[in-house]
């Protein structure tokens, strides 16, 4: 805005016409033309300065400072905080998804129900996400629960409980000794808690620790099963992700009346205390249809292929006739809303290994000819 220089130029131009006026006084013949030119020149030179002076606002007319929208957004976001999960689910999920809010053992959790797009569903599939996913469990089940519902399955995705916190080993405190004579207790000095043998009250004594993970996991499954129809001639499937595999297998072995098939998707060993091991569950699962699906390579789990080979060998040694294993072709690149390779593989093995064998078994029972009694000759005593 070159403010200072135009003002200096205007003052210098005014001095020149004043000298010309003095010359015009000495020459009367040139008085009128020079004076008119001088006035015009002064007016032309003064106009920019006057315009600049008018453009400068005064202290009283200064506009209000502009609002910092970035700072305002940060402030509003900090004041609002994180909305509850049910509010997030209500905003993110489509209108045809039912969000079920349940509570058991003093803990509140959610389940996502997607109705089958078929007049008579093939059955229901209970999706059990990895317990270590946290709030990202909805992303892990998104592709499968929508795709399976579009192909005739009622799906219910269950929010997993938080894993148990690792127990810290007890640590012995160092023995503190003082060699100062002034440290001896006197009659006016109360004894310290350590010297008197009193144990200070802990702040955690009033808080009730949560139930073990196995108890919370089983309670959630039992409550979720109450929300699913128990109809005959329909397939019932538990689909477990990652570290939910062994917990789901243990639940099926403990509830044979459920008569459900089990799908393991990228099963991982859980490191929680008292976590069940698949290697100890193959034999109890002998009569259960188990489909073992895995990605290889799997980011963060380089032993995915060798672990799958070990699981298959263990199932064969346990003489599991209904165990099938399949590798999902493309490498795993993260949980996405659309995962065609995964959904097609899951639907394919469900159809070939669960639906069709059950339909064939039911057809044999329905159309089986009744056995005729042995005919005997008349008069023969049986």
Can you describe what's shown?
Helices cover 40% and strands 14% of the residues. With 382 residues, the chain is of the alpha/beta class. It folds into 2 domains: 4-55; 85-163 and 212-366, Rossmann fold. An 8-stranded mixed beta sheet has the order 1-2-4-3-5-6-7-8, sandwiched between helices. The longest helix has 28 residues, at 340-367. The radius of gyration is 42 Å and the shape is elongated. The N and C termini lie far apart (125 Å). The model is unreliable at 1-33, 57-81, 172-187 and 192-206 (pLDDT under 50).
Question: How many E strands?
Answer: 8
Residues in helices, as a percent range? 25-40%
- The mean pLDDT is 76
Structural class: alpha/beta
Which CATH architecture of the largest domain?
A: 3-Layer(aba) Sandwich
Structure described in brief:
This protein has ten helices and eight strands. The N terminus is likely disordered.
Question: What distinguishing features does this structure have?
Answer:
alpha/beta, Rossmann fold, 8-stranded mixed sheet, disordered N terminus
Helices and strands in order:
Layout lengths: L3 H23 L4 H25 L13 H12 L4 H8 L4 E8 L2 E8 L8 E6 L8 H14 L2 E6 L34 H4 L16 H13 L9 E7 L2 H11 L6 E5 L24 E6 L8 H14 L5 E6 L11 H28 L15
Parallel strand pairs: 3-4, 3-5, 5-6, 6-7, 7-8
Antiparallel strand pairs: 1-2, 2-4
């Amino acid at each position: 805005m070159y403010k200072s220089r135009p003002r200096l130029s205007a003052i210098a131009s005014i001095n020149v016409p004043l000298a010309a006026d003095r010359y015009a006084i000495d020459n009367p013949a040139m008085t009128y033309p020079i004076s008119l030119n001088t006035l015009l020149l002064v007016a032309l030179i003064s106009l920019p300065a006057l315009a600049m002076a008018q453009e400068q606002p005064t202290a009283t007319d200064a506009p209000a400072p502009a609002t910092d929208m970035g700072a305002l957004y940060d402030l509003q976001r900090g004041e609002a905080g994180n909305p509850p999960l049910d509010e997030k689910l209500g905003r993110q999920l489509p209108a045809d998804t039912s969000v079920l809010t349940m509570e058991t053992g003093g803990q509140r959790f959610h389940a996502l129900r997607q109705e089958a797009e078929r007049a008579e569903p093939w059955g229901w599939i209970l999706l059990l996400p990895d317990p270590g996913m946290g709030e990202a469990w909805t992303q892990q089940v998104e592709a499968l629960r929508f795709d399976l519902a579009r192909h005739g399955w009622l799906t219910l995705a269950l929010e997993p409980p938080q894993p148990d916190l690792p127990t810290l080993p007890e640590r012995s405190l160092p023995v503190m000794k003082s060699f100062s004579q002034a440290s001896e207790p006197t009659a006016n000095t109360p004894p310290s808690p350590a010297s008197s043998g009193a144990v200070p009250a802990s702040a955690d004594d009033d808080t009730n620790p949560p139930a073990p993970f196995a108890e919370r996991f089983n309670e959630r499954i039992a409550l979720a099963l109450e929300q699913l129809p128990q109809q005959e001639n329909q397939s019932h499937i538990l689909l477990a992700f990652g570290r939910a595999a062994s917990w789901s297998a243990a639940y099926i072995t403990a509830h044979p009346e459920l008569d459900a098939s089990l799908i393991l998707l990228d099963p991982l060993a859980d490191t929680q205390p008292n976590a069940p091991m698949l290697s100890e569950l193959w034999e109890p699962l002998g009569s259960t249809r188990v489909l073992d699906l895995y990605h290889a390579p799997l980011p963060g789990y380089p032993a995915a292929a060798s672990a799958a080979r070990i699981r298959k060998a263990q199932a064969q040694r346990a003489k599991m006739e209904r165990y099938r294993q399949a590798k999902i072709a493309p490498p795993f690149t993260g949980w996405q809303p659309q995962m065609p390779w995964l959904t097609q593989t899951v639907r394919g093995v469900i159809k070939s290994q669960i639906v069709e064998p059950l339909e064939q078994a039911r057809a044999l029972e329905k159309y089986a000819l009744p056995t005729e009694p042995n005919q005997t000759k008349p008069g023969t005593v049986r």
